[in-house]
Every structure is written in C-alpha cells, then in structure tokens.
Specification:
Low-confidence stretches of chain A: none
Number of strands of chain A: 5
Helix content of chain A: 25-40%
Number of helices of chain A: 5
Mean pLDDT of chain B: 96
Shape of chain A: globular
Distance between the termini of chain A: 57 Å
Structural class of chain B: alpha+beta
Largest interface: A-B, 55 and 58 residues
Strand order of the largest sheet of chain A: 2-1-5-3-4
Number of domains of chain A: 2
Chains: A alpha+beta (161), B alpha+beta (769), C alpha+beta (289)
Low-confidence stretches of chain B: 1-11
Number of strands of chain B: 34
Helix content of chain B: 25-40%
Strand order of the largest sheet of chain B: 4-6-2-13-10-11-12
Oligomer: heterotrimer
CATH superfamily of the largest domain in chain A: Beta-grasp domain
Chain lengths: 161, 769, 289
C-alpha cells in the first residue's frame, strides 16, 4: 500500500490530502478535512446520509473512494450557504419543518439541491424519486417534498432590486 | 398535497400554534449541528465491542493477550473489569434489574457484548476483536415465548419459572356477567411483529474519565438524567460525579433511554485507561443489539350486543421479551391498557406474560405496546361490525370514551375529541366517492397517554423541572431537562416560555441535554414532555413574569382592580394596552431592585391524583386508502386522513411533523418492517434487507386537527408525537379486509401472506358451494 | 474495514489491460464501485491491487445506429443511459429499467460495465439486456472477444471473464420491426432490487408472435432464459390464455431460492404473474409499433 496525495475542492476550498487509497470520500470529508455536516448511517450504501455533490451530481460519499474524486468539485451541506445567507432549499426546509432529528438532513439537502439543479421544476413524483435514495426516519418525507416543491415554484427566488 | 384543517378557532395566542421555525433549524440545515457521532476529543481512543455469536452460552474464559500485542491497542475490558452490577431501568424492582451490560457468567442472545477494546484508530480496534479468544460452553436456547414458557424449556435467568419475566393483570367490572349480556362473542389469535427503532444515528457515546474521579459522557440519549443515574449506579460513582451531555440526538423513538453498551463500555474503558473513548455502533450492531419493539402473541375475546354495544373483552398476551427486561415491563402494561381504548367496556380483563427468550431484548418503541394492541383490537372490531352488519364508524362511536368518563380504577378522561374525529373521517370517506376496484379504505381508532405516572425509575426528583432566568437585556435563558431528540421539544418549550412570559421566541435560549446545568427530567419517552416539561416551563415563566410585574405594579399607580400583562415584549395595562413600557425597561428596573440579582423563575411538575397511567389522553381516528394487487399481494398506500385530538396545539410545525412522521413509521410496522430471526439470529440486520418507507412509498398524511382543552396540560395541550404510531397497521389490515374479505392476523402483512390467504379463501368458498 | 491495497489508475484501456495482465490473480477492477466497496468493507473481497477504470473516458460512450444497433461503453453510468435521448427513443425499456435501478446517487456513479460484471442475480440490467439479445465485448492484453450476455453468466457472482479480462462494451442489436420489450420487477420498495424480475421481448409478424425472449431475474443463480415460456408464444396468435400459459411455463423454467423476502414457491407464483403481464404488455406494444 502506498499513500497518495490527492486534491479535493470542497465547498470552494482546495484541500490537499495524504491518504491511504482505501479512504472513502466520506472519511476524507469528515475525518481528514473535518467537515462533519455529512453523516453516515449505514455500511451498505442504503441510507443516503452521506450524500454530497460531485460537480452538480448527487453521490453517496460512502460509495466512492476519495481518490476517485481527486481534482473534483465537491459540495457538502456546509457549502450551500453563502456568507451567512441560506440557500433557497435551506430556507424551504426551515419553513416546512423538513427535518426533525437532523441526522439525514445534510444528505437530504444535497439530494434535493442536485435534483433542482438538474430539473428546476420537478413534479411531485420526480421529487420523490429524487430523494428516494435518502432515508428519513422522522418526517415521513412529505414536508421535504413540500420544501423542494416550494423552491421549484420560485418561492425563494431572489428579489431583483 | 396535504390538507391542514383547523376545526376550532384558536385562542388569541401571540406565539402558541403560530408558524415558528424549529429553534435548532439553522444548525440542522447548515451542517453545523454536531451529534455524539461527530464528537472528537484530544487524545480520544476508539472502542469496539466483541459480541456473542451464541444465543445462550456460558463464558468459560476470555483471553485478550494477543489483542493487546497489536500496535495501537491500548486496552481491553470484559465483565471482570466491572462491578458486575445487574442493572435495569425499572430500578424500583430488584428482580427486574437483570442485565449486566458486559456479562460475567453467560450470554443470553446473539450480539450480546462480551468484551470491549480501545485503540488509537477504529480500524485497529476492529481488527483487535479478531484476536480476543472467548471460550464458550454452549447451552440449549429457546427463541419463541410459546416455547420458552414450556416446562422443559432451558432456563434463561435463574429463578424465573417457565421463563416468565413479568406478568400484568388489569381488570374492571364483572367480566363474566358482562360477557353473558353479549349476543355475539368473537375470539381471535394474532401475531404482532417486532420493529426496529432504526434511528439514523446509531447508538453512540464518548466517555471521558479524569483523575478527579469525574466522568463525562456525550451520548445519543432520550434522557440525560436517566443515563447519569444509570451510569452512576453501574460504575459505583456518585450521580453528581457523572455528567451526561446530549448534543444533537439523531433520533430515539423509544430506543435510547436504557443504558446501552456504547455508553457502558466507553465508560468502563475510559475509567480503566483515563482517556476519552468513543464507541459508535455500526448499523449491523444497532440492528442486532440495540433492542426492538416487542413482538406479541395476542388472544382477544370480545362480547357485544346485537346493536353493537360493547359488553366485555378479555385478552391474553404472550410477549417475546428477549433476554432482558429493560422497558419491556412497561410495554406489557400499556399494551393491555390501550387494548381497551378508546372504548367503554362494562367488563375488561387482561393478562400479560412477558417471556424471556434467547433473542435480542424487546423494549419500548414509539407507541409503547399500543400499536400491537390496536393491530388486534381495531381489526377485530371491524370484523365484528361486519359480522353483525353494523356501520363500523357508528359502532365505534356509540362505545367510545367521552369527556368525564372514568376508566374504572385506571384513569379519568378530562378531555376527549374522538366524537368529532368520527365526523371528520366520515367526511373524508364520503368525499372520495366510489373507489377503483383494487382499492379500499380501512379505519382504526385509538388513544394514547401524555406521559406516564408510575415512578418505576424511582426518581427522587420532580418528573420535570424548569428554570427561567431573565437577563438584563431582556433575553431569557430557559433550562430544562427535557431532551430534544428531533421531535422539537426545545422549540415547544421556547414557545411556551415566550407565550407565558410575553416575549419573542428568538429571545429565549433553551438549555437542555446537560446534567450539570439543567434540572433533572425523566426525558423524552411516553409522550410526556409537552405536558410535563411544558407545565414546568409555564410555571417557571409565569413565576418570573409575576416577579417582574410586581415591579411594574409598584410604579404604575394603577387602581388595584386593574391588571397588567406582558405580550410581545410590551408591558401594559390589559384595559389600556397602549399604556405601558418595553419589557427590557421593566427588566432593568427589576434587576436593580433585586440588588443586581437576575430574575429567576422556577417550575416543576409531577402528576398527582391522575390515576394509574397518565395525566391525559389523546384520541384519534385514522383512515387509510390502500391499493392491493390481487395477484401479487403488493400493497400500495394511496392516501390517508387522521383526525386527531391533541388538546391545544403548541408547536404548529412540530405537530405536523410528528403526525406525518409517526404515520410513516406506523405504516412500516403494518406492511414492511419485517424482522425475522432464525435460531436467535436476526436475518436482515442491514438497510438493504430491512425495509422502511421511503419518499416513493409515502402517501399524503392529511390531518384534521380536533382542538379540545385538556385541563392538566399547559394551555390545554396533550400528546401528539407517539399515539399516531398506533392505528395505521390495523387500518391497513382493515383496508385489506374490505378489499378481499380476508382477515390478516399477523403483522407486518407481506404480499405472500395475502396471496396465501386469498388462495385459502378461494378454496373455502369452493368448499361452501 | 477495507483491507489495504495498492491503487492503480490507468489512463487508457491499453494501459489498464497491461496492468491487469501484470497483476492478474491479485487484483480486482473497480469502476463505480457501488457494490464492490460494500463487499470489500464486509471483508468478503480482499485485493492487493485495485485497478480503477472509473475515469476511463475511452469507454464512456453511447453509440447507436440503425444497422449496428446500440453500443454502450463499459464505464457509461446508469444515469447517462437513463437520460440518453437516443436510448429513450430506440430502446425505451433500457431507460425505463435504469430509472428504477437503485437511487439516483447510485445511478450517478455506478456504471453499466461494473453492474454486469458484478453478476448479482438480482441485478436489473442483465435480464433486460439478455431479452434484447445483447452481447458483451471483453478485452484482455491477449485480445478481444464477443459473447452473448446470456453465456456471460456462469454462476452466482461468477462470469465468463477470464484472468486479466474486463468488459469493454455492451452491444445491443437493433430492435426487430414490430417488436417491443417489457420489464417488471416485484419488490416492496419502488427502487429496490427485484424479489423476482421478468423481461420480455416479443416480435410480431402479421399478428403472429415471430420471436420471443423471456428472461427471469433473481429466479436462479444467473439470469434465466425461460425457453419453455418462449415456446408457448412463438408462432402463435397471442391470447390471454397463452400469456397465462407462458407464465406457468416460465415458473417451470425458474429455479429460485427461499429467503426472508419470499419463499421459492411464492417466487414461482410471482414469475407466473409477471411473465403473463409483461408478455401481454410487450405484445400490445409490439402490435402498436
């Protein structure tokens, strides 16, 4: 085994990491970089709590080797807000109460955000499909669906002054 | 998508039941919220637990010398490193304290901890487990309550004849006479499955013991106080020398208030090594060794008159208790009590037997015995209505509880909105018109408690306490022992405090989850916090307000018959609201008047003279529209409506979240969350094979909120978080019954069972012809 | 925990095949790794060398023409296939199957080559592709060969891949005129793997079933061609009666196991029902087209 140097761009910041190649992306983000918003809830790529975006694409960061993401642009839940201003999806989650214990929330936000970037006006069915890979034990999902729908309807669009 | 109907106009509250964001919301949607899972301390070691592969075996010897040779392994503990205290959460009864978290002599289920190792990395700790040699002497094992109760079954705990762990008897009225009055008696046997809490955050603890003899434990808990007391008891420490901190908690659902192996093993390792130790269960460990909803065999016999008047019911229940007692003793009582709900019985008798088996221990889980009780009761009642040709809603209605009803010897019903629930659900059904042929609607009624009364934990403290401190700038510190596990109790308490004191929610900072700084509280279980901690918070805030108003009166020069009040941070005469002053001005004056002491209000609550079970009861009726594929048995939930009486709603968003969330968990219990065991081994301890509702399966969960006023609750509130776990399985069962005429007696209902039942029915129908 | 390995990242297919030849019996190939990393974490698979094909853009392509049919490079992701307009138009069943394959996250990173090589009996693409008479192009340092996907599967998690050999491409022949496919899996959650799955491709000719390919998923250790069910249909004017008969015949072709999700008997029952339904669905569509 030979350790490798990789570069991950996480939330716009470049991190150079010296890692064992078996390091999972989620481990690089949580343990090496120290961004703990991204969670882990299983060992079987089932729960979605570790969902991040690679470029604009949702992936489960427990299912990707960190080294496979070398040089890629990664966004975690910490990267949604800009200078203290919450992203529309975050505001919508607050308004709809789309979280309870909050442990799935980071992953749920990233799946929702990736969905909206790909398809800004999803149908309810598409929203449900879009978050199907994320388990939430608390909310029963409907409040999350309402939040994504509210963003899609433009409720949080920036008011141009 | 979701309708939200408010039946009664609200009181003119300023904060209560308005659209208040969860006060922990920004932390949770920005990734800032840190959980025990995220805690990292300087010099921290990582612990892993070695678990028994046998369902029942004597521990002959444990040799961990080879593990200690691995570089990076710092220490190993076994039962011999502990005081060997047999602990249990039913502390009031010695014989129900039956579990050594690291057993010394024998193991009683697959997955039971036998040793724990601490190493510099998680990976080394995990590797070290392979180098701990445990010599077992296997013992015969027994897995099902109806086997374990046999005379010649293996003995699991010494001195428990036929492995009967706990029995419960509930009875009122002249049961036999009441049966004699019945025109129709029906008896059925049911089987209710287990269910896993499946908290997104698995069991987790970080323990740090320091040379002062003080232990600090960060843990994912539903009750910091319980864990402080339980840890002190097993570790031989004073409660005051154990500090339990609950950062954000990734779900509980009834599974996180007993002592668990993460908390215990991390503490024992830390006490041996004087270093912080972190233990996080893997998902598989969480499944096989963190307890479950209690599986039950239910016999119920019900007698009714031709016109549908309920006469008598008797039930016998055998529960699969698994290896230890835990909270199972409570579930055994509550299932028997709620099996009577929400109906009036002239005679009622229940006998429950909790049987030890060599399986994962069973415990409390959201609904606490009631989902099982309703699965059986509400289906049997539907079948009786069909047998007698009666309208199932009207039959239920004529037998239901009402305000002022006394459940003999058990409870007084001070508020009850079930009657309006029947109207709401009737309206919903009528609005649907004719359903497609492959769909049907099932109903189920139930009720639930708002916190428990019986002090099995033997707490010397008030059940709930709160302290309100007013800062000189008008901001408010609220200290409570209530535990926010995602249900939003911090927000609910902030709302109550803000309403009572007359300030804004954002001016209230809630402190909870720290035994050093917050008053003792029994924590988040049994739907108790809104009522109990809510009462304590309201009392504390009102006390602070009264103290402040004394200073206001003194300066106001008002006629003695006039009253002052505070709302929205404005201190004013009620009769002349424009005359007043800002709250902060009054606070400053009062603080100076108290020689610089901050105004402090204290509140507490312990239920008194409220019967055996609970201070108040919620009521609900639920309808679920279900599609079933006749050929494959596949179930799809199409729609649902729940009419729900939780008294006065307090936390509007939180309430909707609780109701929708409970529905998803309850539906899972009805048709998905199958938890099979073979020879004591759980067969699907992972999220690939354990099936839960996902966004694609979740139907609309519409709510009709029935407002009543509960005199015992803060502002008239009662429970909302848990009761909704009770009706859904039975409602799904009843929909299947109306779709095909088949009676499903085992849950979760799986497609194969439906197809087999349809085959049997076809054969029986052929036989009849 | 995943055991340590040496990570190798080839820049070209040629380089990859050389690396494979060099470490033939001590290496494993990772592409999307959506299944592989799980079994590696469980300690079921340990390797000295892990060769990462994920970034091989050379194999990331979708080509389609009327003569040659469809060619999918092995590193093409599920999501790319699902969203490809040409696939939606020419092989709608493939796009529809992909849409219900696990979660979006898994489809975003997982690849068609990785999925097929993993050889999970409950995998979605294999039954559909076999019903479409797909072939796989395999490559090693020694050269290339093409075989039918049907022959590719030899046992549970076993394939015909030789030492140092990988999947390079999936080849799907053009759809015959008046033909259509249908695929259904039976599961409890919408995007789960099938407890069983049935893929049917039928070709019609003047109201007669000219050709039928029926493939059962998770009904045995490999995808199973339900040949006796096909025989029931081929050469016939299809009726509900024949669809039902084909269903019964398909169950006879199946060799399912009992597990916690279903008894073997119920799996056979489900195959009967799904084969009947999918055959009818494919037939109705074929006659429309």
């Amino acid at each position: 085994m030979e350790k490798k140097v990789i570069t991950l761009s996480v939330n716009g910041v470049e991190y150079e990491l010296y890692i064992n190649p078996k390091t999972l992306l989620v481990e690089a983000i949580r343990d090496h970089i120290g961004l703990t918003g991204t969670k882990r809830g299983c060992e079987t790529v089932s729960c979605g709590a570790c969902t991040v975006m690679i470029d604009d694409m949702a992936v489960k960061s427990c299912s990707v080797l960190a080294i496979q993401a070398d040089g890629r642009k990664i966004t975690t839940s910490e990267g949604l807000e800009k200078n203290g201003e919450l992203a529309p999806i975050q505001k919508a989650f607050l308004d709809e109460g789309s979280y309870q214990c909050g442990f799935c929330t980071s992953g749920m936000l990233m799946s929702s955000e990736a969905l909206l970037r790909e398809n800004p006006t999803p149908t309810e069915e598409q929203i449900r499909e879009g978050i199907e890979g994320n388990i939430c034990r608390c909310t029963g999902y409907n409040s999350i669906v309402r939040a994504v729908a509210a963003v899609a309807k433009g409720k949080y669009a920036e008011v141009k002054s | 998508m979701n309708k939200y109907t408010v039946i009664n106009p609200h009181e003119p509250f300023r904060v209560l039941n308005t659209h208040v964001h969860n006060i922990d919301g920004i932390a949770k949607v920005t990734g800032r919220a840190t959980y025990t899972f995220d805690v990292k301390l300087p010099g921290m070691l990582y612990g892993k637990i070695l678990r028994s592969p046998h369902p029942h075996a004597k521990i002959v010897n444990i040799d961990f010398s080879k593990a200690m040779e691995i570089p990076g392994v710092i220490g190993v503990v076994t039962g011999k490193d502990t005081l060997g205290v047999k602990q249990g959460i039913w502390r009031r009864y010695n014989d129900l304290c039956d579990e050594q978290v690291l057993p010394i002599e024998k193991v009683r289920y697959i997955g039971e901890p036998v040793a724990a190792v601490a190493a510099v990395t998680e990976e080394i700790a995990e590797k070290a487990l392979d180098y701990i040699e445990v010599e077992y002497e296997e013992l015969p094992a027994t897995f099902e309550p109806l086997d374990a109760i046999k005379k010649d079954a293996p003995e699991i705990h010494e001195g428990f004849e036929r492995n009967i762990n706990v029995t419960r008897h509930i009875e009122w009225g002249e049961v036999e006479e009441a049966f004699e009055e019945a025109d129709y008696i029906r008896e059925d046997w049911f089987k209710c499955g287990g269910q896993h809490h499946m908290c997104m955050e698995t069991r987790a603890a970080v323990a740090s013991y320091t040379p002062e003899g003080k232990l600090t434990v960060w843990t994912s808990t539903q009750s910091a106080y319980y864990h402080q007391a339980l840890l002190a008891g097993v570790l031989g420490l004073k409660e005051g020398n154990v500090r339990v901190l609950a950062p954000y908690v990734g779900g509980g659902f009834g599974g996180k208030f007993e002592l668990d192996a993460a908390q215990f093993c991390a503490s024992v390792l830390s006490m041996k090594l004087y270093k912080p130790v972190k233990i996080i269960f893997t998902r598989e460990e969480d499944f096989i060794a963190s307890k479950r909803r209690t599986p039950m065999f239910y016999y119920t016999r019900t007698g009714v008159k031709k016109d549908g008047t309920f006469c008598a019911r008797e039930a016998k229940v055998f529960t699969n208790g698994g290896a230890y007692t835990g909270m199972g003793a409570t579930a055994l009582y509550l299932t028997g009590f709620f099996h009577s709900f929400p109906y009036r019985w002239k005679g009622y008798r229940y006998d429950g037997y909790r049987v030890y088996t060599n399986t994962l221990p069973s415990t409390s889980m959201r609904g606490f015995g009631a989902p099982q009780a309703m699965w059986c009761s509400e289906q049997q009642i539907e079948w009786i209505a069909a047998d007698l040709g009666l309208d199932p809603i009207e039959m239920r209605r004529k037998n239901s509880h009402h305000e002022g009803y006394i459940v003999p010897g058990q409870a007084t019903i001070a508020s009850c909105g079930i009657d309006q629930c029947y109207d709401e659900i009737r309206k919903w059904i009528d609005g649907k018109g004719k359903l497609p042929a492959n769909r049907a609607i099932g109903l189920s009624a139930c009720g639930f408690m708002s916190g428990g009364i019986f002090n099995w934990f033997d707490s010397p403290y008030s059940f709930s306490s709160a302290v309100v401190t007013v800062n000189n700038d008008g901001t408010v510190e609220l200290h409570v022992g209530a535990q926010d596990i995602g249900q939003g109790s911090n927000t609910t308490m902030a709302i109550i405090c803000a309403e009572a004191l007359g300030v804004k929610v954002e001016d209230v900072k809630v402190h909870s989850g720290d035994t050093d700084h917050c008053p003792a509280d029994l924590g988040a279980w049994g739907s108790r916090q809104t009522l109990m901690t809510g009462n304590a918070t309201k009392m504390a805030a009102e006390s602070a307000k009264k103290q402040l108003l004394e200073f206001a009166y003194a300066g106001a020069g008002l006629n003695i018959v006039y009253d002052l009040d505070i709302k929205d941070g404005w201190v004013h005469a009620i009769a002349r609201p424009e005359r007043g002053e800002p709250f902060v001005d009054l606070v400053k004056r009062a603080t100076r008047g108290k020689d610089g002491q901050r105004i402090v209000g204290r509140g507490y609550y312990t239920p008194h003279r409220k019967g055996m079970i609970s201070p108040a009861y919620s009521y609900m009726l639920q309808g679920v529209e279900v599609e079933v594929d006749e050929e494959t048995g596949k179930i799809k939930l199409i729609d649902s409506m729940t009419a729900h009486d939780c008294g006065q709603p307090i936390n509007h968003l939180g309430l909707i979240g609780q109701l929708e969330g409970a529905f998803s968990m309850a539906a899972g219990y009805g048709y998905l969350e199958y938890m099979p065991f073979e020879d004591g081994k759980m067969m699907n301890p992972n999220l690939v094979d354990y099936k839960m509702i996902k966004a694609t399966e979740m139907p609309p969960a519409n709510i009709a909120e029935i407002d009543t006023y509960e005199p015992e609750g803060p502002y008239g509130a009662k429970e909302a978080g848990e009761g909704l776990t009770n009706p859904t399985a039975a409602a799904i069962g009843n929909a299947i019954f109306h779709r095909f005429g088949i009676q499903m007696k085992e849950c979760p209902v799986r497609p194969e069972m439906i197809v087999n039942a349809l085959k049997e029915k076809a054969e029986a129908d052929k036989g009849k012809k | 925990m995943i055991h340590d390995f040496t990570y190798l990242k080839p820049g070209t297919v040629k380089e990859a095949l050389t690396m494979l030849a060099d470490h033939a019996d001590e290496c494993k190939v990772i592409c999307g790794g959506q299944s592989l990393l799980i079994v590696m974490r469980q300690g079921l698979v340990t390797v000295d060398y892990l060769i990462d094909l994920k970034g091989l853009d050379e194999l990331n392509y979708i080509k389609c023409d009327d003569k040659e049919g469809l060619k999918l490079g092995a590193t093409t992701t599920h999501r790319t296939i699902e969203k490809s307009d040409i696939i939606k138009k020419s092989y709608p069943i493939l796009a529809a199957m992909e849409e219900k394959l696990a979660s979006i996250q898994v489809r975003n990173w997982g690849t068609i080559g990785g999925n097929l090589a993993h050889a999970d009996a409950a995998g979605d693409p294999a039954p559909v592709l076999i019903s479409l008479d797909a072939k796989v192009k395999l490559g090693s340092a020694k050269g290339e060969r093409v075989m039918t996907l049907e022959e590719f599967y030899t046992d549970l998690f076993e394939t015909a891949l030789g030492e140092g050999e990988i999947i390079l491409e999936v080849q799907v022949p053009p759809m015959a005129p008046k033909s259509a496919s249908a695929y259904q899996k039976f599961n409890l959650l919408e995007n789960d793997q099938g407890i069983v799955a049935v893929a049917v491709t039928l070709a019609a000719d003047n109201g007669v079933c000219k050709d039928a390919r029926i493939v059962l998923g998770n009904a045995g250790v490999t995808p199973i061609r339900a040949k006796s069910a096909e025989k029931v249909l081929i050469g016939q004017k299809l009726t509900d009666q024949l669809f039902a008969e084909a269903g019964v015949a398909a169950a006879g072709d199946a060799d399912p196991v009992s597990d916690i999700h279903s008894s073997a008997e119920f799996r056979k029952h489900l195959i009967t029902v799904l084969t009947k339904r999918m055959a009818k669905q494919a037939w109705d569509q074929a006659n429309k087209g």
